[in-house]
């Protein structure tokens, strides 16, 4: 209980610090305003009339005061409002002016609050998690208490999914986004079918751990129900479980389809605009390849077999043990996602450069376009910067959140020393039966007795949801997010290569 009190103190201090710090410094605002991003200004009506050779409108005369019949009261003539809409040739030679992004400019952006909140909250979650991990390393007995950092991580995952749902909802609220809605539905349906096929793969090849998690949960839950003298046929069947996971895969697939298309476009544009900056090119190429490499780490013949079983050359033992391989996989998930965040400013700038590219594309077209439509095409790029930012950041946040939860809830360790105890999953060991009647405090019972009863109850629940169960749940979700990032970005690269259309 002392450990739980320390965690509560750390949580309260973090919340108070978060409120104070974010008022003066926000990592989300810093990412938008302090990384050298520039946006393009749309031309004014005066500039468009000058370039198109259209006469400028004459200044309006001042309204005159007209006397009424009585000569006392006076009224002004109604001012005639001229129509400010006019057309210009599409091939007009327009050179857009650029300006640096300042904090006052980003306040008007769509989803600005959600973007800043998600990034700032992710930073504080990492701080809380690091402090908790250091404290648990110094106090080994702390693993018996509730880890409050997991609640922070769970909220982080919820905020990221909520942001993706809000961005995807834009396509369903717009009356002109029928094609986008169809693509979201098709992507979700395809991911549902694909997940059903992937869940049929033998886990000796794809080590997601769902079969072992189901067996452990089924065995421990059956014993728990017997001890409660409850009549039950046991948990749901494995088919129902896999259908639920497939439905979750379909939902996330629908949410990831447009972020994948957007990220692939930004990476291709960033490669074109980075010029001779070779270090930036390396980071961008790593971002494109990293989801594929992380997916392969869960394929046993491609990863674990080569690192933990095969002996190379004159070596007497494999490169690493199974425990070290699990730790390496967690480190790589965090490392590659941090590199993706480092390259975020370059990708955001590549997106902002679409304004000039749209103008250059209009120069190759014939016909005319209204000044309002032309200005909207340019201004909307900057207006939706935070929407694009959420599509870029939210998948990274989900990968980090599921990785941290997989490490802690699955009993893994960062340095090859895991907390997983196989005896913990044995539900046949003798324990005091726990029922609702003996959990309620009696008149003669002391506070220590009630605390002991609740500790026994928590211990029984932990036997049902053991490390092995959490390894299956969060191991699969972590791998699926990595696979989905790779699949959607790969589809986006193919889409950009063959169709060459704006996403």
TrEMBL record:
Family: Belongs to the TMEM161 family.
Organism: Simocephalus serrulatus
Location within or outside the cell: Membrane
Main localisation: membrane
Upper lineage: Eukaryota, Metazoa, Ecdysozoa, Arthropoda, Crustacea
Membrane topology: Multi-pass membrane protein
Membrane-crossing segments per the record: 115-137, 149-172, 184-201, 239-261, 282-300, 381-405, 479-499
Spans annotated as Disordered: 53-78
Signal sequence extent: 1-24
Sorted UniProt keywords: Glycoprotein, Membrane, Signal, Transmembrane, Transmembrane helix
Keyword match Signal: yes
InterPro entries named in the record: Transmembrane_161A/B
Name of this protein: EOG090X04CK
Domain of life where this protein originates: Eukaryota
GO cellular component, one term: membrane
Transmembrane in keyword set: yes
């Amino acid at each position: 209980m002392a450990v739980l009190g320390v965690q509560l103190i750390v949580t309260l201090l973090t919340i108070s610090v978060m409120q104070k710090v974010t008022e003066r410094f926000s990592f989300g605002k810093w990412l938008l305003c302090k990384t050298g991003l520039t946006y393009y200004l749309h031309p004014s009506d005066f500039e468009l009339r000058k370039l198109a050779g259209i006469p400028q409108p004459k200044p309006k005369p001042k309204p005159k005061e007209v006397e009424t019949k009585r000569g006392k009261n006076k009224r002004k003539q109604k001012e005639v409002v001229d129509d400010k809409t006019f057309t210009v040739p599409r091939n007009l030679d327009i050179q857009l002016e650029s300006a640096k992004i300042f904090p006052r400019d980003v306040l008007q952006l769509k989803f600005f609050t959600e973007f800043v909140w998600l990034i700032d909250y992710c930073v504080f979650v990492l701080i809380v998690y690091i402090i908790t991990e250091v404290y648990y390393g110094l106090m080994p007995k702390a693993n018996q208490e509730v880890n409050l950092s997991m609640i922070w991580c769970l909220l982080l995952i919820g905020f990221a999914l909520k942001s993706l749902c809000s961005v995807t909802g834009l396509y369903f609220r717009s009356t002109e986004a029928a094609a986008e809605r169809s693509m979201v539905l098709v992507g979700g349906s395809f991911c549902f079918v694909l997940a059903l096929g992937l869940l049929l793969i033998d886990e000796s090849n794809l080590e997601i751990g769902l079969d072992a998690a189901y067996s452990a949960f089924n065995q421990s839950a059956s014993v728990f129900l017997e001890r409660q003298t409850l009549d039950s046929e046991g948990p749901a069947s494995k088919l129902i479980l896999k259908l639920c996971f497939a439905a979750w895969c379909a939902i996330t697939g629908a949410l990831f389809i447009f972020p994948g298309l957007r990220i692939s476009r930004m990476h291709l544009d960033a490669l074109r605009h980075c010029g001779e900056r070779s270090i930036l090119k390396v980071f961008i190429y790593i971002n494109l390849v990293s989801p594929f490499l992380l997916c392969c780490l869960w394929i046993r013949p491609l990863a674990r077999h080569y690192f933990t079983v095969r002996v190379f050359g004159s070596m007497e033992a494999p490169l690493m043990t199974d425990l070290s391989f699990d730790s390496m996989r967690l480190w790589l998930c965090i490392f590659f996602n941090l590199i993706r965040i480092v390259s975020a400013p370059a990708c955001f700038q590549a997106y902002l450069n679409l304004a000039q590219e749209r103008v250059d594309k209009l120069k190759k077209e014939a016909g005319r376009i209204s000044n309002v439509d032309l200005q909207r095409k340019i201004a909307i790029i900057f207006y939706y910067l935070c929407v694009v930012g959420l599509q870029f950041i939210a998948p990274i946040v989900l990968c980090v959140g599921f990785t941290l939860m997989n490490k802690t809830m699955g009993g893994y360790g960062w340095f090859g020393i895991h907390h997983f105890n196989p005896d913990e999953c044995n539900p046949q060991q003798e324990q005091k039966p726990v029922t609702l009647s003996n959990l309620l405090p009696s008149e003669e019972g002391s506070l220590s007795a009630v605390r002991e009863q609740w500790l026994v109850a928590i211990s029984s629940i932990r036997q049902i949801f053991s490390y092995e169960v959490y390894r299956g749940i969060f191991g699969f979700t972590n791998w699926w997010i990595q696979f989905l990032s790779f699949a959607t970005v790969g589809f986006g690269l193919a889409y950009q290569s063959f169709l060459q259309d704006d996403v």
